Predict the structure.
Amino acid sequence: MEIKVKNVSSRPVYFLEVDLGFPEVINTEIDGARRSLVAPLTYGRRELMRKGNRATTEDAPIRSGESHVFKIPSQYRETPERLAVVKKVLVTVYELSFGDETGFLAGIPFPSGKQ
């Protein structure tokens, strides 16, 4: 499976996390607690989500109008038997950084009032 995202904003995106949630696939690997499987897909440096970190010339953005294709990492590929229960996939843009200390975290602009 692949997920294609397109930057429809007027600003370059330097970090992006898209979470794929599989509500019917139960995962107990972290601590034995039952929870649905979530596969985080990331682009860029996560450090750009922290105050004081800005994009550098070494960071490659997804420019306005450009797309990026995420591929599911091998550790989240499930056996066909487990995937047979999947009836829906929840896609969430969880984190996004414009590389200038602004962006979105869980749908909320940061810093507040800057978008």
